[in-house]
Design a protein that fits this description.
DSBA-like_thioredoxin_dom; HCCAis_GSTk; Glutaredoxin; transferase; GSTK
């Protein structure tokens, strides 16, 4: 019997394209490395409001982010594109309903969390589709393989105290780990906790884990893409 898997927590928000990049890389490695990957839907607005000005509000940073995300998408082999009305998507519509829905999924159907999260990212960061309206969230859930009945049942719960409090607790947990944005990956190793910010710390994560880093698309995955 080999060593027990090490626990990794990924705190993310579907409003963050860097969260998508980190999410896909960790999902690719979860069956290669000896890890137990735990997905933690969080609210980036709750982290950023008292810690940092969103980089996209600064013109030169905004232009850099567009190019950076495009190039990283090609490198990681994810079809990411900036929404045409970026500021409306980020600042006006936000992701509160989507992240509450993912919180409800994590509470009641955790086996669907990866797929539903991915479909919400695909909507907003690949096809420039809405993720704030109920019908948009339902469409993502159904495309991920959830039944209409299941999805509607979860959608009815996103305004309940249980779901609201769970999302708030997860976001606060990210802040306690030191988050000033998303994504963050938290590795629990030998009684110590390591917080890594961003989607570009995977090589360092591999070092901490004592695992082999084979790039963002490891050979076993590359053969299927």
């Amino acid at each position: 019997m080999g060593p027990l898997p090490r626990t990794l927590e990924l705190f993310y928000d579907v409003l963050s394209p860097y969260s998508w990049l980190g999410f896909e890389v960790l999902c690719r490695y979860k069956n290669i490395w000896n890890i137990n990957l735990q997905l933690r839907p969080s609210l980036i607005a709750g982290i950023m409001k008292d810690r940092n000005q969103p980089p996209a509000l600064l013109p030169r940073k905004a232009q850099y982010l567009r190019n950076d995300v495009r190039l990283l998408g090609q490198h990681v082999q994810i079809p990411v594109q900036f929404p045409k009305d970026f500021f409306s998507v980020i600042l006006e519509k936000g992701s509160l309903s989507a992240m509450r829905f993912l919180t409800a999924v994590s509470m009641e159907h955790p086996e669907m969390l990866e797929k539903v999260s991915r479909e919400l990212w695909m909507r907003v960061w690949s096809r420039d589709e809405d993720i704030s309206e109920p019908q948009s969230i339902l469409a993502a859930a159904e495309k991920a393989g959830m039944s209409t009945e299941q999805a509607r049942g979860l959608l009815e719960k996103i305004s309940t105290p249980n779901v609201k409090n769970k999302l708030k607790e997860t976001t606060e947990a990210a802040c306690k780990y030191g988050a000033f944005g998303l994504p963050i990956t938290v590795a629990h190793l030998d009684g110590q906790t390591h917080m890594l910010f961003g989607s570009d710390r995977m090589e360092l994560l591999a070092h901490l884990l004592g695992e082999k880093w084979m790039g963002p698309v490891p050979p076993a995955i590359n053969a299927r893409l």
